[in-house]
Specification:
It is built from nine helices and ten strands. With about 290 residues, it is of the alpha/beta class. The longest helix is centred in the middle third of the chain and has 22 residues. The chain is globular.
Length: about 290
């Protein structure tokens, strides 16, 4: 049985060329020349892959991708963005809204085939691990992008079983530790990328935030607050000429159920369980344990 592929592109000739390639690779292609019906079509027909143009006459491809990725029914459909927009910011935006690959024109059939195969490898990994949904964001090292990330994550979490308060707690932790990755891991070098992996399992959400910096020792951070000494770090920050703050790691630990760093110290994992293991008060503060 052939797999379905949806092509959303307003250029009929290019759509037909893409369809011919997909047929050779074992797909049954369907072409939509406008974007307004793409979400409904994908929801009703569940294609195995979507080739999505960004510059559509009625709605941009970012909005289509975001809508599909925000719905658990279509979250795992691989989406390959194809576009004339080769700018770095356009690519980052595409990855932010959940695209599995971003191909600026012109691209070769081999490049497209490789992107599709990699997207299916991603999907097989999800199914092998029993995961209900995953999105990877690759963000430029600029805190302005974190606000868009948090808005996206907040919407995504509403499909996961988390309460509104749990959403707020987790997005706050993501913002704090994402800012740490940008400011400390990358020293605000905006050309470097922070990756954020979001995964839904039956009982929890897991988020991995990783930068490409040298890392650090999470047990030895003199400019950050500690559980047993939340104040003295302020003098260290003042001496070093660092802005006020340093509570991100301490606060984030109180907002999630599990938080751990890799050995290098450039990747942090946050885990939030649904309901029964939530140990926070309604205002987001950690409850005292007996």
């Amino acid at each position: 049985m052939s797999r379905k592929a949806l092509i959303v592109h307003d250029e009929r000739d290019l759509g037909l060329i893409l369809a011919e390639h997909l047929k050779k690779w074992g797909f049954e292609p369907y072409i939509l020349l406008e974007g307004k019906t793409a979400v409904e079509w994908a929801t009703n027909n569940r294609p195995d892959v979507i080739l999505l143009d960004l510059m559509l006459p009625d709605i941009d491809g970012y909005s289509i991708c975001e809508t599909l990725k925000l719905d658990r029914a279509t979250n795992r459909i691989p989406i390959i963005m194809i576009t004339t927009m080769a700018e770095h910011e356009a690519k980052v935006h595409g990855l932010q809204v959940g695209a599995n690959a971003y191909l600026p024109k012109p691209f070769t059939a081999d490049t497209l085939n490789l992107s599709i195969r990699r997207a299916f490898d991603w999907l097989e990994d999800l199914e092998r691990n029993g995961t209900q949904g995953e999105i990877r964001f690759n963000l430029q090292s600029d805190t302005q992008y974190l606000e868009e990330l948090n808005h996206m994550l907040g919407s995504l979490f509403r499909f996961s079983g988390l309460t509104k308060q749990q959403v707020k707690q987790l997005t706050t932790a993501v913002r704090e530790l994402g800012t740490n990755a940008i400011e400390w891991g990358h020293r605000k070098q905006t050309d470097r990328i922070v990756s954020v992996d979001y995964r839904i399992d039956p009982e929890k959400i897991t988020i991995d935030i990783k930068d490409t910096g040298p890392g650090f020792n999470p047990t030895n951070v003199p400019h950050a607050a500690k559980d047993d000494d939340p104040v003295s770090h302020t003098m260290v920050r003042e001496a070093l000429g660092i802005r006020e703050g340093g509570f991100g790691i301490l606060m984030s630990r109180g907002l999630v159920d599990e938080m751990s760093y890799n050995d290098r110290g450039n990747e942090v994992r946050l885990v939030k369980y649904f309901g029964v293991r939530d140990h926070l008060q309604p205002d987001g503060r950690a409850m005292c344990q007996a």
